[in-house]
Amino acid sequence: MSDEQSGQAQAMVDAVYRSESRRVLATLIRLLGDFDVAEEAMHDAFRAALEQWPRDGVPSNPRTWLVSAGRFKAIDAIRRHSRLTPLEEVADAVESIAAQTQGTDDDGIEDDRLRLIFTCCHPALSPDAQVALTLREVCGLTTEEIASAYLTPAPTLAQRIVRAKAKIREARIPYQVPAPSELLERLDSVLRVIYLVFNEGYSASSGASQTRHDLSGEAIRLARLLVVLLPEPEPEAEGLLALMLLHESRREARNLPNGDLVLLDDQDRSLWKRELIAEGCALAERALSSRRFGAYALQAAIAAVLAEAPSAAETDWPQIVGLYDVLLRFAASPVVALNRAVAVAMRDGPEFGLTLIDALLDQGELADYRWAHAARADLCRRLGRKEDARSAYLRALELTRQLPERRFLERRLAELDR
Fold first, then answer.
1. Do 10 and 90 reside in the same domain of the chain?
2. pLDDT digits (tens, 9 = 90+) for 180-194
């Protein structure tokens, strides 16, 4: 094979890896019953693809081909190590893998990635482990990316993932969607993790791009599956889906062609996806009308008010502040209080919002939260307090690792000197 052909083959397999590797891994985990064995089998399958596809062509269903190849590679590995394992155990393992091949091409409700996320969010695992394992195994983030997103040393994060996998293996945690009687008990963890995955896709914690559509799209897909799977309508699952759809509707308007950040008030609203807004608003309204709503449905209601405003000037800020007041009773947190303070500034004027933000910063919990300092800087700028604004922008810059955000803050700093 020439260097050019080799490069084309690598590019072809890389493209399939990006689009299909998480599905392949999820199915192999179901078939093989072990995270590490499945990951090794998946990589073996992609190595086989790199050798065979340039010669034989890409199969019509690459995912099924890769799952089958990974399964056979795992069986071969079991047989190679048979000298160290009783023959009966080898036969049982091979027969078990072979017997579970049905369903590898099933894209219906019993989706392997949905099974995987319930396994990763099992209550036997700590909340931090649930998030780390889901981002690693369901979404394919590297250990370094997850560590960066959560300000955790990479070795610490790696050990957390290793311990979570060992816990699943040793406790024999089943790889399945729980029974209806158990499902609602585990729903909060699953919703929280799905939303964290969406957030990393909608506003990446670091890097050259503000967004990662693969992650936000995956989170929305999982939320849709979850809404259908639940035995009866669940307002918080619908509320989370609504919230993500409403945020996603603005994606194309959030950045200029060069990647620069565009704030909500300055966005071209003709770029907003009206079909996503309509679906999100309908879901939010249904969740709220159930009177069993929670924090996700309330956040979706806030997003709906923003999305339905014909212009920035016509936004119903009094209603948004009122919704934040209710949200604080459901899910009080410094970040929710900060968002409410920004809404108060829009309703009553920057000086009122600044007083609230300063009080929050004095409490210390938002000292390292970049958006708190960016919000303070903006209100100081609007009040003509240039030096206070400069100090706050510089602090926000210190805490920002995302390039579009950094460029935005640097532009704001430069504008203060004009």
1. yes
2. 778 777 888 899 889
